[in-house]
Amino acid sequence: MNHENSHEKNHENNLIIHTQGALGIITLDRPSHLNALSLEMIQGIQAQFEAWADQPNVQAILINSNSPKAFSAGGDIRYLYDAYKNNTSNYRDYFVAEYKMLSTIRQYPKPVLTFLDGYVLGGGFGLAQACHILVSSEKSRFAMPETAIGFFPDVGATHFLSRLDDIGVYFAITGEQMSSSDALYLDLIDYHVPSERLAELLEAISYKPELDQLQIEQIISRFITDPASSDLRALTAVIHQHFSPATIEEIESSLAKEQDPLHQAWTEKILNVLQQRSSIAKQTSLKLQHVGRSLSLEQCMQLERNLQDIWFEHGDLMEGVRALLIDKDKQPKWQSHNPTLIKIIDDLTAA
Fold this sequence. Notes:
By secondary structure, this protein is an alpha/beta fold. Helix content is about 50%, strand content about 15%.
């Protein structure tokens, strides 16, 4: 068996593609941008999955990263901003391609695994969630930080966060990060493997002449360790207490009234975070989390897609990106109220 195959580095789409044994490997290779997913990267991943679908020598696929800091810091929001400002429809093309890629990965007939070893944020979190077997090291930090830029958690988060009920609401509207220990506790990853052993794990998997999901999981099980204890576990009761109300106003009011000295520092910090976020983004994110609980994955994805296309026109994303990435003044001027958008969201979520 030819164990080592050629590496094909594509500078145009920031992917390194190669096979190792029966494993096809797609390495995200845009470290200067913490692997923010460009349209070319998304299209490249899609094309590679299609190419490997009927190649019997590729029996499983691994998506990993060439950045020591991140799996992926999310979508290419600078590209989306520029596309909209230049009056092109490229921002819509981006989401169409991204959602097609996510569906392709989720429905892929061969096992798709991912190694997470650093930041897993936004669109990177969505990409990881689409994979079938998720392995994370202690270095990973997970978040859906969209409300910080006046957007809402998308890429399937309406489904995968809403399954966590109030804890999903907490992560969706605050954008707070979780550790790999927290992610394992919440069942958002499957296995915890120390960072220093991921290369060895890759070798072990690629030495198998035949690969199926069971064999891959049996190999991984030899490498897993117990992570540090989850900080989130100790916070679950207080999160349930404050993030179960039906409106943002009630959630913020609840946080402001915390009486327990053990939790006051935390509730003050979280309330301060929430008060800096876009009101329309918080309200939408909350509504999506509540509605998503009773929808299928496909329905959640469709709802997100419908909202994405109107958000550029009516939402706070452009202002959020301007304040954080373009002018970097960190002083976003959020809309105080947008009845048009609220009505559109109500209509979409009622459908």
